[in-house]
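BUG: 3D viewer hangs when loading the predicted structure for this chain

Environment: internal workstation, default settings.
Expected: structure renders.
Actual: progress bar stalls at 90%.

Input used:
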Amino acid sequence: MLNSERDIENTQQRVQTPAEVAASGTLAQISGIGRQLMRRAPTGYLWNQAGSIWLFVSLLLFEVVIRRSLSKSETNVFDLVSTIANLGFYLASLGLSSAGNVFIPRALAEGGPALALSLANRLIAIRLTVALLVGTAFVFGLPALVATAETAGWPQGTAIAHSFTVQAMLDHRLWIAGYLIFIGASTLLSNMLVALVYTRVVFIVGSLGQLLLLVLAYALIRQFGAGVDGALAAQALPALATAIVLFVALRRVLREKPNSKGFHFLRPTLRLGIAAWLADLPNSSLVQPLAISQLAAVAPTELLYFKSTYQMGDAGARFFTDGLGGISMATMSISYEAGIAPLATSWRTVSKLQVLLAVPLVAFSMPHAGAIMRILFGPNYAQSGPLLAIFLALNGLTQLLGGSTHEWALYVLGRQQWVVLSRWATLGVLAVSGALLVPRFAALGALLAVGIGRLVAQVFLLVLARHWVRRPYPVAFIAKLLLALVVPVVVTIFLQPVAVVSALVSSGGWLPKDYRPVVELGVLLIVNLAIFAILFLVGLRIIRPLDSDDVGLLEQVPQWLRTALLPFAATRGDRGRVSAHG
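C-alpha cells produced before the viewer hung:
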C-alpha cells in the first residue's frame, strides 16, 4: 500500500522484472474497493457511452440549428469564436480531468472516500482558479492589449488589433469567458464521477443539461435572434447548472470529511495533469486552429466545409468509444495495483474494445458519407461527402491501431512525457504536411494533414505501449474483425433498395414533397445500417474473434455481459470453462 508521496511516485513509475510479473500477475492483490470499481466498469461503460451518444446527438442537433439559423457570415464568426473558446478551455484545464481519472480511483482504493474527496477538492479549486484567470484575461486583458497596440503606433500591431479574429474575440469576449469557466467546471466534475464509476448520475445530469442546451439554442437563436452570443450562451448556461448539480452529487458519493493527507497525492497528480495538458493542447485545441489558419490563408470560403467535415469525421470514429475514456483509465490504474501483467491484460482488452466499437461504424459510414452530410446539413454540404469519406478512412486507421488506449496506458505507467512528445510531433507533422497539401487541395489538404499527423503519433504510441506492457498487440483479433466486415461492406454498397424505400416514403401522403428526398435518403441509410449490423454480427459469430485470454477475462464481468459475448468466443471448450466458473 501507499503510505507516502515517494511511494506513490515509485508506484506510478515502476517497471517490474519478469520474476515480479509472475509473482504479482493476479487481480487478487487488488484492494476490495478496487475490485468493486472494476466489476462495475462494464455497466459504467454502458451508462457513460449512452451519455456520449446523447452528447453527440445533442451537439449534432445544435450544429444543425446553428447552420440552418445563422447567416453564412455569422456561421463563420461562430466557428472562429467557438474554436477560440475551446482553446481557452484547454488552456485552463491543466489536464486535471485525465489526472483525476488515474489518481482519484487510486486514492479511493488507498484511503477511502475521505482521501478521494480531499484530492477532488484540491483539483476543483485549482481548475476554478486558473479558469477565472483565463476568463479575466479575455474580458479585461484583451481590450487593454488592443488599446496598447493602437496607441503604440506600430503598424503591424494596429493591423492585428483590427483584424477579423481580434475583433470577433472583442465582440464576444464575455460569453467566451463564461464558456470556458462553466464548461471547464462541469467537465472536471463529470470526469471525477466517471472515474468513481458513478456514470449513471453523470448520464442523467448530463443528458438534462444537453436537453437544456437545445432548448436555449432554439429559443435564443431562432426566436430571439441572439446570433453568435446566443449560441455561446446556450452552451455555457447549461454547463453552469450541470456543474452545480454534479458538485452536490460528488459530495454525496464521497460522504466522509476530507482527509488532510490528500496533499500527498497532489504532486504526482499535478505532474500527470501538466503532461496531459501539454498533450491535450496540440491534440485537442491547436490542431484545428492550425489547420483552419492554413486553410483561411488559401481558401477561406471552404472553412465551413472543413469544420463540418472535421467534426463529423471525429464523431464518426469515436461515436461508440468516447465512453471508454474515464472508465478505461480508472480500470487500468486499479489493475496496475497488482503489477504489469494485469495492466497488460487491461491494455489488450481495451485495445480490442476500441477497434470493435469504432472500426465497423467507420467502415459503414465511408461509402455513405455524401448521404450523411446531405441529410444533416442540407444539399449545400453534399459536396463535402468525399472529404468526409477520406477523413473517416484516416481516422479509421488510427482507431485500428488502438485509438487512445496506448495514451491511457502510458499515463498509468508514468510515461506521460512520451505522450506529450507524440502530440507535439503531431502538430509539427500537421504544419509541414499542411503547408504542402492545403495550397493544392484546400479543405481536403487540411483534412489530410490532420489525419497524417495523427497516424504518425499513433504508430509511435503503439510501439512504446507494446514495449512497456510486454504483451503483443491483438493483431489476430483485428484481422478476424476486418474479415467479418468484408461481406457487410460489399453488400451495403451494391445492394441499395432504392425502389422499395421510395415506394414506402411516397405512400405517406402526409409528407410534403419538398421533404421526401431527404426522408427517402434517411430511410435508405437506416435500412442499409440494419442490414450491415445483421451481417456483421453473423460474421462475428462465424469467425469468433475472442481468444482464450478474452474467455478468461469473462469470468470477471457481470453475467449479462458474459452471456452476450460467449457466442463470439473462439472454442467450445473455453465457453464451457467460463460457464463452469460463472
